[in-house]
Amino acid sequence: MNPLFEPIIEGILADGFGVADNFLSPNEVKALASQLHKRHEAGQFRAAGIGNQQVMVEQAIRGDEILWIDEATATPDEAAFLQRVGEFVEYVNQTCYLGLREFEFHYARYPAGTFYKRHLDQFRSDSRRKLSVICYLNTDWQETDGGQLALYLPAPGGKSEQQLIISPTGGRLVCFESGRLEHEVLPATRERLSITGWLKTI
Ligand SMILES: O=C(O)CCC(=O)C(=O)O
Ligand SMILES: [Fe+2]
């Protein structure tokens, strides 16, 4: 049993989502946030898209900028992050038989005031996306900073759905079934940083 990964798996099996508060250490959070900022200052980020919409339409839906993390150009800290994700994938495959084969991750930077409206992560009809993973890189995040992840949990038996609110606290990892849980990023009053990705089948 892996004490870091097991609670995430148990959460996914029981509730459709799992949370681990110390997936990254405070030092790892700081190192990755600083590399995110360096890459952002170097002009490597692009406005995130949602398909073939116009930019104005897209900004009304999501306001983050992203940069895909490429193994070939990864810094040692980024490589260490991907390595831990790889170990998690292996663990999921041993315990859940989801048949995960690949993963893809990007940095996301939400400038103050931006958000991502309610959506499902398989919107591009990429049904290979099985699990969505988000890891937050925010040091000293306060309740009043906003920017929470809202998960919409379908209630069984036609009862009304439940909204679950999760703060983007540094080091915290959230994982949920991509095709099942609608979710939303609420507006934040300060810059909000994360690494987001998908664990996929072939
Ligand atoms: O950053 C988050 O909390 C969620 C991001 C998200 O939903 C996405 O990138 O698809
Ligand atoms: Fe999403």
Automatic annotation (TrEMBL):
What this protein needs as a cofactor is: L-ascorbate
Record-linked PROSITE patterns: FE2OG_OXY
Its keywords, alphabetically, are: Dioxygenase, Iron, Metal-binding, Oxidoreductase, Vitamin C
Q: Please report the stretch or stretches of sequence annotated as the Fe2OG dioxygenase domain.
A: 96-201
Q: Where are its TM segments located?
A: none
Q: Name one GO molecular function term.
A: L-ascorbic acid binding
A GO BP annotation:
cellular response to hypoxia
Show the coiled coil region(s).
Answer: none
Supply the name of the protein.
Answer: Oxidoreductase
